[in-house]
Amino acid sequence: MSYSLIETFKRIVSEANRFNRVDFGGYDIYMLASDGRTITAKIRFDGGGQDQNEAYLFLESSTGHSRMTTLTLHQFEHLSSYAAHSERIQALVSTSA
After folding, report:
1. Which of 40, 52, 64, 66 has its Cβ near the most Cβ atoms within 10 Å?
2. What secondary structure, in 3-state letters, does the chain show?
3. Each residue's pLDDT tens digit, 39-94
4. What b-and-e string marks burial along 34-73, b requiring 16 or more CB atoms within 10 Å of the CB?
5. Around Cβ 84, how many Cβ atoms within 10 Å?
């Protein structure tokens, strides 16, 4: 687990352009960086199969650079809730503007 990746994830979420919910509480979050790159953050929980109950965080830039770390269930739940809350706040701000 990498705390620097988690902090980067939180920054991406706070500056996100778009959120996409996926299965088991996961998210794809997209951010357009000031230099024109698209940065994607993905959190996933694998609820079945061989890797049952594994959660992970994956960060990828449109330049091809990527990083990944596994998450504890507690970290996954925290980051998923953080993303959901940020998505709701962003929707409220955009509808009230």
Report:
1. 40
2. CCHHHHHHHHHHHHCCCEEEECHHHCEEEEEECCCCCEEEEEEEEECCCCCCCEEEEEEEECCCCEEEEEECHHHHHHHHHHHHHHHHHHHHHHHHC
3. 999 999 876 556 567 889 999 999 999 999 999 889 999 999 999 999 999 888 88
4. eeeeebbbbbbbeeeeeeeeebbbbbeeeeeeeeebebee
5. 15
- In whole angstroms, what is the distance from residue 64 CA to residue 59 CA? 10
Give the tokens for residue 61.
């830039």
